[in-house]
Amino acid sequence: MTKKKQSNIIKNVLADPYDSFWPHVNGKDEEALNDHINRFLSMAKLHRGFISNKNLRVIHREKSKARRKELWKTMVVPPGVSEDEIAKNKENRKALVLGVNSVARGIEHSKVACCVVCGESSGRPLVQHIVLSAAQRKVPVIVLNNLRQTTNQCLGHSCAVFALKKEISENKEHVFHPLYEAIKSLAQTFPIPEHVMRSSSDNDSDGEGIVKDKKTKNSEIVKSQPTCKFAYLTRPPGSKSRVFVPETIIQKRSTIGFGDYAALPTDVDDRLNVKMEYSDDSSNEMDDDDDNEDDVNTIADHNQLPEGKDLFFIDKVSRPQITSRKRKMKLPPKLKPLAVKRMKGNPKKIKRNKKGV
């Protein structure tokens, strides 16, 4: 019997339509940056002795801690290293930020001048958020291959991400300032896409673009009664239901003045009851007092119009300015829909054999 041919399974997966920002360095730039890192980060290496497990294996667990302290005190400085060099390296180490979590926290608090990220494919999902957050905050960032091996040689331990503190960019006499300039110059060769910068500026300038008009007659702000904290859980005075009472609310008048629109009746009989206000100067305010009733003209026919006015003079009257809360926003750029990618299984994947086969 012939074996049944297995059909290839293809799955449709939703993916990001934009190309991910990944400032990867190759070629001569990669070699030059590796040389800079080896030369400068070696000045921050902490020279420590090595304690073999053979000295602690026989000792009881409770006594091993005290034994370790004694061994550290008697530890001999590595040959060829002076005490002054050890002190300088400890001081230079304070200007570095090592580790994924520490660098991410430093970028959020704006304490990082630049950063270098490991470019291995296995570690990309772990450091992708650092590249994006650094680009959004305009922090120079570079992706470098074999960063773990490079840091293991110059620092004595591997590191997936390292960053330089902000004080280095401000102090030109610092030891790591040439390294900062090299990383910054390489980062400028990678332009940041618009969709990366747009995501950081969506919530910015919430209060900008509000039009403030001179006259606020058609809308007024009514202050609510003082309420306790957690207003949505309290009952306002004189009410039996629990309602949310905001601190300030905006109420609009239900009545609309004649300055908002012009009512032009068709019947002559209805024109007797229509009152229309007009003003020659836009700076004059419209008052509803009894003293201004003489200025209001009842129009029954076009012959009764005041002198110097035509039939459509109401269209030329300057209307009162109405307060507007609309924002002066630019048209948002069109966003791309999610892309659909067809994923195929890995034929070289090792499958576990079923029991009893």
From TrEMBL:
GO biological process, one term: tRNA 5'-leader removal
InterPro entries, sorted: Ribosomal_eL30-like_sf (IPR029064), Ribosomal_eL8/eL30/eS12/Gad45 (IPR004038), Rpp38 (IPR042848)
All residue ranges annotated as the Ribosomal protein eL8/eL30/eS12/Gadd45 domain in the record: 85-146
GO molecular function (one): ribonuclease P activity
Region (Disordered): 196-218
Compositional bias per record (Basic and acidic residues), positions renumbered to this chain: 209-218
Annotated Gene Ontology cellular component terms: fibrillar center; nucleolar ribonuclease P complex; ribonuclease MRP complex
A Pfam family of this chain: Ribosomal_L7Ae
Entry-linked PANTHER family: RIBONUCLEASE P PROTEIN SUBUNIT P38
Protein name: Ribosomal protein eL8/eL30/eS12/Gadd45 domain-containing protein
Organism in which the protein naturally occurs: Laodelphax striatellus (Small brown planthopper)
